[in-house]
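look at this fold:
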Amino acid sequence: MKRLLYVLFFIIGGMLFGCESSNEPDAPLTPNIRTLQAYEREMVDASSLFAMDLFRQLQQGDDPNLFFSPYSIHQALSMTMNGNRGDILREYLEVLRFGNMSQEDANSAAKELTEFLLGVDPKVKMAIANSIWYREGMQLNPVFRQTVADYYAAEVASLNMASPQAKDVINHWIESKTNGIIKDMLDYVPAQAIMYLVNAIHFKGDWKYQFPVSNTVKQPFQTGPGRQVEVDMMSLDTGADIRFSQQGDITYLEIPYSTGQYSMGVLVSENFELDKVVSALTLEQLNGFRSNAAMRSIQLSFPKFKMRQKQDDLKEVLIELGLETPFLPHPENFSELFEQVSGGMELSRVIHDAFIEVDEKGTEAAAATIVEVVVTSVPSGPISYRVDKPFLFFIQEAHSGAILFMGKISNPSLGG
C-alpha cells in the first residue's frame, strides 16, 4: 500500500502538528503567525528536500508502507554536525540540504523555526525535545555544550555507559518525551559508545471536521489495478471546506486540523503510478500542488489506520545520500566534541522509530532518532565483569594449544 505516501507529505511539509479541541466550540482560534526570516524559510526547504531524499532511499525496500519523521532525523543530525569542522562539517551541511547557509545560520534557523512551530497554534499539543548523553569521566567541549543548549535546548548529561542500566536511562527519556508511545528503542550500548544524540517529537491533533464514529464501515481500498483490501473507512456526513486540486492523474488535498493552520497533505496517483510520481517529484512541484489547491466543499472518506515502523540503522541510507566520512574512522571526525580523546571517533548507528494513529477524532504521532557515536578503540581503563554463571574451563598450553585439563562449574559451593 504505497498509496500511503500522504503520510510522508503531512510530515515533510511541517503540516501536521497536534491540536486539542476546545471545550467551548465557539471560542476563537487564532494562530500566532509571524513573518519567517529568510534563513528560516531556507530551513523549511532544507528539511523538506532532505525528507524527499530520505524517502526515495527508504521506499526502495520491500515494505509496502513507510512512515518516519524527517524532522526528527534532521534535528538529530543537525545537532551532530556541530561536533565537526572543515570538510566534514560541509558534508553534513550538504546532506542536510542547508545549501550555502553557514553553520551559525543553520543553527539559528533550527532554533527559531522550532520555536515558531511549537507556538503557532494555541490549540496545539506538541513536544520537540533534544538530549545528549556522553561517557562519564570525559570532558565535553564547552563550545559544543553551549551550542546545543542555546540552539537546540538540548539536555546534556554524563552517563555511565558501562552500566547495564545505561540504555534504560535513554529509553525512559524517549518514552517520557513521546507521551509513552516510543518504548525500548535502544537495544544495547556497545563498549565503544562515547555519545548519544537524541531527538524526540510528539504531536496530537483533532480534525477540524471530525468523522462520526457511526459512519466508519468496512470498504475496499485499491492497492493496484484489480487488487483491493478491506479497510475501516471513515466518512463525513456533509461537505467540509478542504483545499483540493486535480492535475492530470494527480489529486492533492489538505485535511485541516484545529484552526486549519496545520493539515494532513494527501497526494494520490489515480492511475496507480505513485512510485513514478515520487521518483520525479521536486519541491517546486510539491509547492505547486499546494499553491494550486483551492477551497472546495468535499464530503470526504478516508481510511483509518495505525502503524509503527522502526529503522534499526539508517547508516547505509545516509551514506547513499553522501554522509560518508562520519561513518569512517577518520581522524578529523568529531574534533569539536571533547576536550581530549585518545583514538578516533565515528558514527556507529542512526536509529529511528516512528508511530502514527489516524482515527475519527484526529491524529497522534510520535518519533525519535538516536545518533550513536563510538570510539574506534575501547577507551582505556578497567572494566568490571563478574563470573557469576555456570562456566566451562580449560588448562591449556599456549604454543601447541594442547588442552591439559577441562572442566565445568555449575555450582562452586559444592566441593569434590
Summary: The chain is about 25% helix and 30% strand. The first strand starts at residue 125 and ends at 135. The mean pLDDT is 84. Residues 213-302 form a domain with the Alpha-1-antitrypsin; domain 1 fold (CATH 2.30.39.10).
